Amino acid sequence: MFKVLLVCTGNTCRSPMAEAILQDKFAQNNVGRLIRVESAGLAGAEEPAAKPARAAIRRWGLNIDNHRSRRLTPAMVQAAGLILTMTRAHKQAVCRLLPQATGKVHTLSEFADESADIFDPFGGSENDYRECASQINRLLDKSWQKIVKLAGNEE
């Protein structure tokens, strides 16, 4: 099974929202059985998803209430077929952790043929979280089919 790993700082807002959105896109398009989506953080520490992130994702009927953050490990990086980070700094950190994985690490924005980092809503308003979730959703709309194609080429 092809694994997509989404990475942010604490794995309490951006990457769990991205994980839920991407899983939903795959499920709606009947490719969820082919691709496993996971998330982790550079500093994850077994915490629940941030309340505003849970609320932001519910508008699409998605639920991350049971999410627990986890710290990125070299084994996770090695097992993933594709790693999408929320920022360029996250990408650099993943590449430092396991340099041989460099070719499969991209920011979500660059994978969607854009360049802006996904801003961190942590500590912001509920509207900040909604805007962040919308940005992630828009980028995943542009790139989920590319992920499916990549997964098909890897199997």
TrEMBL record:
Molecular function terms, GO-annotated: protein tyrosine phosphatase activity
EC number(s) on file: 3.1.3.48
UniProt-annotated catalytic positions: C8, R14, D120
Taxonomy of the source species: Bacteria, Bacillati, Bacillota, Negativicutes, Selenomonadales
Keyword line: Hydrolase, Protein phosphatase
Native source organism of the sequence: Methylomusa anaerophila
Protein name per its UniProtKB record: Low molecular weight protein-tyrosine-phosphatase YwlE
Keyword Isomerase: no
Family assignment from sequence similarity: Belongs to the low molecular weight phosphotyrosine protein phosphatase family.
Pfam family, one: LMWPc
Domain Phosphotyrosine protein phosphatase I: 2-146
Enzyme class of the recorded protein, top EC level: hydrolase
Repeat keyword on record: no
PANTHER family given in the database record: LOW MOLECULAR WEIGHT PROTEIN TYROSINE PHOSPHATASE, LOW MOLECULAR WEIGHT PROTEIN-TYROSINE-PHOSPHATASE ETP-RELATED
